[in-house]
Amino acid sequence: FETDVRPATVVMLYLWPEVNLRLRPKLLAELPPGTRVVSHAHDMGDWTPQRTAVVGDARVLLWIIPERTAP
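The chain above was modelled as a monomer; its predicted structure follows.
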């Protein structure tokens, strides 16, 4: 939670579901738009993935950080 993730273009998560949810606000706030976030097995609550695939016995989910809207 203290790591600077801003330079990342892809983030791979292999965490418990509750950790994904705790990390989600940081990812959305700090990652540049277009950054891909991939999770093995677990979702991000009500943030709908752009894509879900099954690879072997594993579910893999993909989100793309959206453009930020002006307040």
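Helices lie at 17-30.
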